[in-house]
Write a structure and sequence with these properties.
The protein is built from seven helices and nine strands, in the order H-E-H-H-H-E-E-E-E-H-E-H-E-E-E-H. It has 240 residues and is of the alpha/beta class.
Length: 240
Amino acid sequence: MASRKEQKEQLRREREEREVAAKAAERRRRTIGIGAAAVLVIAVAAVLVVVLAGGGDGGDGKANGASDVLPSGGKVPDPKVTDLEEAAEAAGCELKGFKAKSRDHSEDLAEQIQYESTPPTSGRHFVEAAEDGAYEEAPDVKQLVHSLEHGRVVVWFKKTLPKEQRAQLNALFDEDTFQMLITPDETGSAYAVAVTAWNADPMPLGTGRLLGCKRFSPAVFDAVRTFKDEHRSNGPEPVP
């Protein structure tokens, strides 16, 4: 059986391979949070505005909502630190673990559930998980917790961060989207940026993992990267 160090190295190699493949191909990024019906309404409204205004070049055709929360054009520094503890310390971030208390499902999206941490890392959750992707509007927290159970990693960010920093987080997400979600943090946490995961050990409930960064700095990027490499695909209910 491969050692944990060997597994981490393999995960890191896989991430680098995905980055190369992503840069070689034209990227198509799906922004979630605006339903298909809403998009259609916006598109029709835009056409009507142009027609009623008597024509014109119509602008660049981009919906404002697609760039308000997670703007494009951000750039992030190349990786420098590959050890999670070292990267977290350099960024001034906290690393916490929480013994999971439940893996039960709720069928009521309105149910109020108290979680061990903010943002949550594990616990009772909605029966349907949130899909992988980048969110302009936060899904219900109970759906995000279910995603964690499936081995996903969730990046949470404050909408109040400067536009440049949100663009950088968007670019960081685009580096490696495999089993990843990024969402505005509506949980009331104290962190500018947080990352969560749910490990399988110890079975059957596992352990929730949290990286919390109260301040945003360039060192945060390596903290997020190393957290992903350490905890992704390790959920108590592995789902491809």
